[in-house]
Amino acid sequence: MSGHLKANRPPMGWNSWDSYGTTLNEQELLANARFMAEHLLAAGWDTLVVDIDWYDPTARAHGYNENAPLVLDEYGRQLPDPERFPSAANGAGFKPIADAVHALGLKFGAHMMRGIPRLAVERDLPVKGTAYTARDVADLDHVCKWNPDNYGLNQSHPGAQAWYDAQLDQFAEWGLDFLKVDDMQTPFHSEEIAAYRRAIAKAEAAHGRAISLSLSPGGWVSTGYVDFLRENAQMWRISDDLWDRWEDILQQFARLARWAPFQTAGHWADADMLPLGHIGLRAERGDDRDCRLTPDERRTLLALWCMGRSPLMVGGDLPTSTPETIALLANPALREVTAGSADNHETVRERIFARWDDENSYRGELIVWAADAADWADGTPSAHPNGRYAALFWTGDDDYELGGNIELQSIVGIDGRDDPWTLTDLFAGVADGAAPADVRIEGEGADRVIAGTIPSHGVLWIALDRR
């Protein structure tokens, strides 16, 4: 697999966490797979990921279980709970589900915790292919602070790499295309990350299947790790879990601005899952609900993630989400901008006051992003050759009238300021319950501006093309 560029565009897919927490079953997984294939694959959504504890038969909503009777094979490797995933019975693992997902034209992935199951250590099960046992390779001093399933691995012991090698060999044999590996970055376990990458490379060579690696959670991950992360992973989280709260979206503006200059084909900083649609069915956080973000906040979320070139992994149960949500996800601009943009960066961030001399009159922040339209890494031509993208965000609680403070030349460049430009609303025609955007080009020549009204917590997301 050495010549294969994995994740040449930011991955787009579905993850079960926001809807089902630790409790997803086979029927629900396949229902989401079929729905994605029918309604969203054409728009770029192509990956299904089973999140945490698919190997715990006692899994429940709102938390994890101490001393859970995990389903393990004779080498201590996790197996899907056959009660929730009947096709996994008799040692079949996730292969029947992976085959079904692949038949739909989709990719299949699963979540895994760093380390080795405590139950394997208690039973002192053998590490496959070695003379060592789970007790030999376990590190009891470096365990996850929030999940009780595993011990760490002692990476100074030769059996530790063998444990990961055997685990990844099984995943590749099942047909997994994607792995979300948790408890890797907060704190930052560089030796574990490198060991996991080596195991993936060995499994890819043995089975001829590319496996993308996504690291979680994010915490306050430093950009100082970027070279190491690019060497070892295709995705890495840059925040803790994000939910359907405006405060969570606000936090991501600064993080994505910090990471945007480091985004490159095959290696993506990840602003976390999109809590859009029908979530909380049996999740860790909150009750059964439709996403609590307003229609304008949902547009802001998607435009920010796309301008920051973050992966897009939606968390809502697709078959039971509203038509408005599905229309929003089916917008071709999502893949167009994440896959086909370059030099993405924040250009403006200004705190706005109703009165310049009254510090108590703060209204919100005006934040502007810009990017060049570009061909995709796989050679797909740009949707806007020689064009530009821009997103104008407003964080205030009332609408914001732009006036003349965003000059067109600040988006298209001084050299292009006299060229004829047309504007396209990238949310135009998306029937998601939000009002049509009020955005336009006003003025003449070099004096032209982007004018319009940004709704509360909203965005004007546009493409600009030379006529």
From TrEMBL:
Catalytic activity, reaction form = Hydrolysis of terminal, non-reducing alpha-D-galactose residues in alpha-D-galactosides, including galactose oligosaccharides, galactomannans and galactolipids
> Recorded GO terms, molecular function?
alpha-galactosidase activity
Primary enzyme class: hydrolase
Give the record's GO biological process terms.
Answer: carbohydrate metabolic process
A Pfam family hit: Melibiase_2
Q: What is its EC number?
A: 3.2.1.22
- What UniProt keywords are attached to this protein's entry? Disulfide bond, Glycosidase, Hydrolase
Family matches, as SUPFAM superfamilies: (Trans)glycosidases (SSF51445)
Q: Which InterPro entries match?
A: Aldolase_TIM, GH, Glyco_hydro_27
| Domain of life assignment | Bacteria
Family membership: Belongs to the glycosyl hydrolase 27 family.
Q: What is this protein called?
A: Alpha-galactosidase
Organism this protein belongs to: Bifidobacterium lemurum
Question: Taxonomic lineage per UniProt?
Answer: Bacteria, Bacillati, Actinomycetota, Actinomycetes, Bifidobacteriales
